[in-house]
């Protein structure tokens, strides 16, 4: 968009999906992403404590992965107790 | 008892949003009607009476206060009546009378001879006066059926039982379609099934297009599950409004049908009325209502009909539909802080509804014991039921014994846990975005302001000079940025 | 339904969204002599301060006319909320009777519902009419039996009030008493569960008085009913010294006990006094006290019509809406005088037994009520001291309303201009207060 990239008024644009979540969930997402390679990485930008930008095509997949991960960390009482 | 609960502020806000009035469906419908529709409705005294009662108390009393006056209602009068400052703005007083304005009981405020006034809708005023004095002529409270004195008539209990059976039959059919529990339920009439489909409460999963459903193979939708958890009066009004909307969709006139609903709501349980004299213009609609148990007819083509408690309680404004019957039977749940639920009921329908989110462990003839656990609650939430709906179901069915412990009625531990489970489902919020990174603070702030005024901004992080905008506004924002860039650069 | 939109922080957001069902207990004074007075009122004194009011003529009020108006009002009460109920008592000379609802053992009401009347309205109206006719018939039978004296008894307000209080006690279970009897803050409790709980009704009593104070007391002294019809003009003058509120003669203690019971139970007693100033120059002070002590509304009709509108405007809002958000009409100054137990005289200055608090008009060596003996020596001292006591002018119990809230005088219909007669009058009359 601008000719000189080092220009003080340069603006960089990125398209993607903005994810808003709590920081715990974000850490899980970062972990998921770090275990992936090359094309399968879904994260575009780590914005701040509670925001991420990810690739659009992975949204449904990582929602499911997150649920699975959370499920692993939930204590479920043995119904026979 | 002081509850050290972090959820209290949230409870307050959620309780107001989760316990809407039972007539919410009707309100939405009426909010979208025009003046002429109301003129048509207000021909019936019964409608005027019911609409009056549906107003919030302050507004209602001002209307009553003003009922016998010949003059238009003045803003100064209302201000002093509700102890508002004389200098209060006109918007503020208008806000007080807004419910009446929305129902077209008053015409919008005008300035006349230096005074701000609302003039009243003559049709409503006349209707309400006639309702109070009994001088109307529209037969809106129902023409009694002329029967022989020794003719046998059903008792009130029989009518209640009849109405209850008919309506619960429909609900049971809905639940059983979703859970596959073996109820031996009769399939409702085709017209009823059609309405359930149109309203989106049930759907045919094999029907891809949604156009040609097989109404005999339908299953319940998540909207249908939510419907089941509502209290009875809300369900009735929702059904009636689906019916009315279906009529409107067929471009039939619905005002007479709606006015008939109100008339039914003002009738007396145990009294019989003449259909052809009471509702000469809405006979077919009356026939349709019979399928839901609103009225009872001794024989299918008789002119004589008895409204059941479903109809007579339509306008009673309380969650408890009828005296005795519902109040006691609907309050059967005891919920302990350890998530155990004791339900003193043998009603198949209620047990099936409980089964939606409770892990039922023990069943006795009059008692069901179960536990609210994560698995069942979450599977209910998968079906589209929210935590607030479960909470309002639990509190509206709370056993009188539960009221003996200090408030709140449901222990905060459980309420909080339900909310937490609900939130677990949605830990991520995702939205399409375009991110802009800036280096210049000035340009960043200008762009943020521009985006805010155009409602394009999703999020901005000033410390890092990031901003996020709606993707569809990308072109416009890009143009703006370019323009500003040029201005700023040439400024140096 | 249709709750007020809460989006704005305006004052309407703080208005209550629901009110509990309300039970209204009405006591109508149907004393035949009082109504004969009301049916032929003397001309009203001119009211030059306000031309609009002055133009409205004195309007005679007969019992049938009034009952029609009252039914309109009671129907409006029933109409204003589902679950609202009405109870009506009639108070005639020396007796009171329940008119509505009919006792449960009575035969079921009218045969056929009318197609243009809401059935509860029809039941109420026809039953009240029947009840009044029955009472009138009994009254006539009493007269025909030669029991002429009984007609000079004052209306049995105390009996009716007692019955009403018993009724309230019966419909509101005892254990829930303190909580159930309305506390307006309780309904606005933001905690959701309490609103889901069974709705507790709020109750109020409305006394409709038709009997002017002094006339009945004179009627009692010379036991001649004719004198009441024409004797009112002479009586007005002397009334101020002797017989104010005399209709409560003998029933004073009973009335006050009822008032205190109602006050304790937080049941407001509203009072509507029908005799206009031309008949009754002084208000029925004990009923006025009753309204004041129970935070009810007291109002005296000005004799110029517009009653239906007044009833709607003043008495229709339930207690939970009064004071907040609605304004309560300014109340007149209340005379807190008492009646002595020995001669039933209304007193400015009295003597109170230090043991049982009975009130006497003169110092006594032995209390008539509790038989306590007082030192005989103290009596002359008391008597001499009493002569020095000067009546103290009472301040207005209610400060005059601020100007901007004076819209009560801006009633729309012509003769509905509320007249603030008393507050003007009493301010300079300087009524004495009872001290002891």
From TrEMBL, chain A:
Q: Does the keyword S-adenosyl-L-methionine apply?
A: no
Question: By its UniProt entry, which Pfam families does this protein fall under?
Answer: Tfb5 (PF06331)
Q: Where in the cell is it found?
A: Nucleus
Keyword entries, A-Z: DNA damage, DNA repair, Nucleus, Transcription, Transcription regulation
Gene Ontology cellular component terms for the protein in this record: transcription factor TFIIH core complex; transcription factor TFIIH holo complex
- A biological-process GO annotation: nucleotide-excision repair, preincision complex assembly
Which domain of life does this protein belong to? Answer: Eukaryota
User: Which InterPro entries does the UniProt entry name for this protein?
Assistant: TFB5-like_sf (IPR035935), TFIIH_TTDA/Tfb5 (IPR009400)
Q: Which SMART domains match?
A: Tbf5
- Protein purpose: In NER, TFIIH acts by opening DNA around the lesion to allow the excision of the damaged oligonucleotide and its replacement by a new DNA fragment. In transcription, TFIIH has an essential role in transcription initiation. When the pre-initiation complex (PIC) has been established, TFIIH is required for promoter opening and promoter escape.
Q: What family is reported?
A: Belongs to the TFB5 family.
The record's subunit annotation is:
Component of the 7-subunit TFIIH core complex.
This chain belongs to which protein, by name? General transcription and DNA repair factor IIH subunit TFB5
Q: Which organism is it from?
A: Kwoniella pini CBS 10737
UniProtKB/TrEMBL annotation, chain B:
Per UniProt, the keywords (alphabetical) are:
DNA damage, DNA repair, Nucleus, Transcription, Transcription regulation
Superkingdom: Eukaryota
Where is this protein primarily located? nucleus
* Biased composition annotated in UniProt, kind: Low complexity: 1-22
* Region annotation (Disordered) ranges: 1-25
Q: Localized where?
A: Nucleus
> What protein is this chain from?
RNA polymerase II transcription factor B subunit 2
Name the source organism: Kwoniella pini CBS 10737
From TrEMBL, chain C:
List every stretch annotated Disordered: 181-245, 396-436
**Its quaternary structure?**
Component of the 7-subunit TFIIH core complex composed of XPB/SSL2, XPD/RAD3, SSL1, TFB1, TFB2, TFB4 and TFB5, which is active in NER. The core complex associates with the 3-subunit CTD-kinase module TFIIK composed of CCL1, KIN28 and TFB3 to form the 10-subunit holoenzyme (holo-TFIIH) active in transcription.
Q: Which UniProt keywords apply?
A: DNA damage, DNA repair, Metal-binding, Nucleus, Transcription, Transcription regulation, Zinc, Zinc-finger
Q: Where is the composition biased (Polar residues)?
A: 185-197, 212-242
Keyword presence, Nucleus: yes
Q: Where in the cell is it found?
A: Nucleus
- Specify the species: Kwoniella pini CBS 10737
Name under which the protein is recorded:
General transcription and DNA repair factor IIH subunit TFB4
Tell me where it mainly resides: nucleus
InterPro entries with a match to the protein in the record: TFIIH_Tfb4/GTF2H3, vWFA_dom_sf
Record-level Gene Ontology MF annotations = zinc ion binding
- Entry's family note: Belongs to the TFB4 family.
Q: Where is the composition biased (Basic and acidic residues)?
A: 425-436
Look up the record and report any one GO term of the cellular component aspect: transcription factor TFIIH core complex
- A GO BP term, please? nucleotide-excision repair
Q: Which PANTHER family match?
A: GENERAL TRANSCRIPTION FACTOR IIH SUBUNIT 3, TRANSCRIPTION INITIATION FACTOR IIH TFIIH , POLYPEPTIDE 3-RELATED
* Role description: Component of the general transcription and DNA repair factor IIH (TFIIH) core complex, which is involved in general and transcription-coupled nucleotide excision repair (NER) of damaged DNA and, when complexed to TFIIK, in RNA transcription by RNA polymerase II. In NER, TFIIH acts by opening DNA around the lesion to allow the excision of the damaged oligonucleotide and its replacement by a new DNA fragment. In transcription, TFIIH has an essential role in transcription initiation.
Task: Indicate yes or no for the key word Heme.
Answer: no
